[in-house]
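FORM 12-B: Structure-to-Sequence Request
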């Protein structure tokens, strides 16, 4: 009876944990990012702790503050490199001669229009120009503008809340290094203390491997894309490579987003120089570089990170990401692997009598 009750309790606990992670995914992201920043900042805290001015020694609170401040300065410096690139790209787009562009694509548009009419996709009265004008008017309508303003205000508020929450949590995680461990111990029943300690230890090990691998993947993709685009003399290769590489934080969907934005950036730059005939080859060059870089990513980097680092089969990881994406969108896809890793560790400790759990956790 006790064994049955333990199994039922473990299943209920696992289900509740999954629901809470999904329901409060944004908060989980805050805590996760703050934990990573605290791990990065911990050596800085230790370094500031060793500084002595006469008999004065920095208290832990001051050391944590200086460590967090140092991280913020590094991040701001990093953005300081790319904000001018983004501003330059905006200036490039504003310099495009749309009249010349319209004249250059007039004949191709007419050919496309005749082709669509020949297959009755467009009626004789419809034109592509009119369709584009209608779509532009709908985008620029008052309702759309109002919705856009509301979205911008909402996003700005969300960014502010996220930034404040992450910095607040990071500070206290660096100041009180064992805060999370103490919280887990406080919530752990005495009879499960040994199991929870093992879960905590294994989780830290696997998640550390995963995040280190993820950082290597993002850096590698930024480097590969930037070098590849530079070889083909694509303008703004650093900006395109940085954004494209960063998007790989979103499994499977990120590379597609990065490639689309990369093409738009490259094409807008090309149009600003008035070289309209080179637009199509430029698109194929950018797509080719992204395809080659992601081929290396899929064959080398992702198996190392998503499979070996968390000790799970690639098909298993793929299905987990799909399920998480359908439940919580992009945040769910980003959180899928760390969350699934923790759940597998918990299942191994409390549900190891089930064959499916034994199969899924045999490499842990």
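FORM 12-B RESPONSE
SEQUENCE OUT:
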């Amino acid at each position: 009876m006790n064994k049955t009750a333990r199994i039922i309790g473990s299943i209920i606990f696992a289900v509740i944990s999954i629901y809470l992670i999904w329901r409060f995914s944004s908060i989980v992201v805050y805590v996760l990012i703050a934990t990573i920043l605290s791990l990065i900042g911990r050596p800085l805290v230790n370094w500031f702790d060793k500084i002595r001015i006469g008999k004065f020694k920095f208290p832990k609170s001051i050391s944590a503050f200086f460590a967090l401040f140092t991280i913020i300065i590094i991040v701001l410096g990093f953005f300081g490199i790319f904000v001018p690139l983004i501003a330059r790209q905006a200036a490039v787009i504003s310099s495009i001669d749309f009249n010349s562009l319209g004249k250059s694509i007039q004949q191709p548009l007419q050919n496309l229009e005749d082709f669509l009419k020949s297959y009755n996709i467009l009626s004789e009265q419809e034109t592509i120009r009119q369709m584009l004008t209608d779509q532009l008017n709908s985008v620029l309508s008052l309702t759309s503008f109002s919705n856009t303003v509301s979205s911008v205000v909402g996003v700005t508020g969300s960014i502010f809340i996220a930034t404040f929450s992450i910095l607040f949590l990071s500070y206290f995680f660096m100041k009180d290094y064992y805060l999370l461990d103490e919280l887990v111990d406080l919530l752990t029943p005495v009879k499960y203390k040994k199991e929870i300690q093992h879960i905590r230890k294994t989780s830290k090990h696997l998640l550390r491997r995963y995040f280190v691998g993820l950082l290597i993947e993002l850096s590698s993709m930024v480097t590969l894309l930037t070098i590849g685009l530079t070889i083909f003399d694509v303008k703004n290769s650093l900006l395109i490579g940085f954004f494209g590489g960063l998007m790989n934080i979103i499994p499977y969907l990120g590379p597609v987003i990065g490639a689309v934005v990369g093409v738009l950036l490259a094409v807008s730059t090309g149009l600003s120089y008035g070289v309209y005939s080179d637009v199509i080859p430029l698109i194929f060059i950018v797509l080719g570089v992204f395809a080659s870089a992601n081929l290396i990513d899929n064959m080398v980097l992702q198996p190392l990170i998503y499979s070996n680092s968390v000790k799970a089969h690639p098909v298993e990881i793929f299905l987990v990401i799909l399920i998480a994406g359908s439940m919580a969108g992009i945040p769910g896809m980003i959180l899928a692997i760390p969350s699934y890793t923790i759940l597998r560790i918990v299942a191994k400790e409390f549900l190891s009598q089930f064959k499916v759990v034994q199969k899924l956790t045999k490499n842990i």
